[in-house]
Amino acid sequence: MKRSWAFAPFAVVGVVHLVALAVNAYELAYVSKFCLMPGLLLALLVALPSRRSEIALWAGLAVVLAWAGDVLLADPGELGFLFGLGCFLLAHAVYIVLYLRPLRSRRLFSRSRWWPLLFLAWWIVLLVLLVPHVGALVVPVVIYGLVMCAAAAAATATTPLVAVGATLFLISDTVLALRFFLPGFSLWQADVVIMAFYIVGQGLIVAGAVLAAQRGVARAAEVA
C-alpha cells in the first residue's frame, strides 16, 4: 500500500494507549484515547489517492463520529452515555454505506455465501444475554446491536481486510456491552482487550478502504 507510513502516528498512539491502560497510567490513557481517531483520520486523508471521493467522505465521517463517541464516553453521565452510544450508532450506519457503495466488491448474500447470517445469530445471542439487564435502555441497546451486527455483515461484501476490521470492531463493542450490562461479567485487562480490538479493527477498515481506492486508481490508469 502506498503511503503506508501515514498510519505510523495512529499506530504509535494506539500502542501508547494500550500500554497506558495496562499499567494503569490513566491520565496518559485518557489523553491518548482522544488522539486515536484524529490520527486515523490523518492517515486516511494522507494515504487516499483522492480526497474528493465517496471513500473519503464516508470513511472520514465514520472516523469523526467514532472520535465523538470516544469523547462522550470518556466520562459519561447518563446523557453523555446516550449521546456517545448515538455517535457510535451513526458511525456503524455510515460504515454500512461505505461497505455497500464504494467498497462493495461482491454480493452480500448468495447460495454459496450464507455466512453473513452468522452476524444475525450474533445479534440474537447478544440480546438474549443483555435485554434482561438493560432496563429502560432496551430499545437503544436493541437498535445499536442490530446496526453494529449489520455493519459487520455488510463488510463481508467488501475485501477480507475490511471484513476482518469490521468484525474486530464488533467484538470490541460486544465485550464493552457485556461489561456494561451483564452482571458478573469479568475479563482480565478488559479495557486493554476492548481497545485493542477497537484500534486494530478501525485501523484495518480504514487501511482496507485506502487500499481499495489505490487499486481503483491503478486499474483506471491501466485502462487509460
Keywords for this entry:
single chain, 224 residues, mainly alpha, 75% helix, globular
Q: Quick one: how many beta strands? A: 0
Helicity, as a percent range:
over 70%
What would you call the structural class? mainly alpha
Rounded to the nearest angstrom, the radius of gyration is 18 Å
Distance from N terminus to C terminus (CA atoms, Å) equals: 21 Å
Largest sheet descriptor = none
Unreliable segments (pLDDT under 50, ≥5 consecutive)?
none
Topology pattern, helix = H, strand = E: HHHHHHHH
Portion of residues in beta strands equals under 5%
Short description:
With 224 residues, this protein is mainly alpha-helical. 75% of the residues lie in helices and 0% in strands.
SSE order and pairing:
Layout lengths: L7 H15 L3 H22 L6 H21 L3 H23 L17 H13 L7 H18 L4 H22 L8 H34 L1
Helix pairs in contact: 1-2, 1-8, 2-3, 2-8, 3-4, 4-6, 5-6, 6-7, 7-8
Provide an overview of this structure.
The chain is mainly alpha-helical. Helix content is 75%, strand content 0%. The chain is built from eight helices and no strands. It has helices at 8-22, 26-47, 54-74, 78-100, 118-130, 138-155, 160-181, 190-223. Helix 1 (8-22) runs antiparallel to helix 8. The longest helix has 34 residues, at 190-223. It is globular, with a radius of gyration of 18 Å.
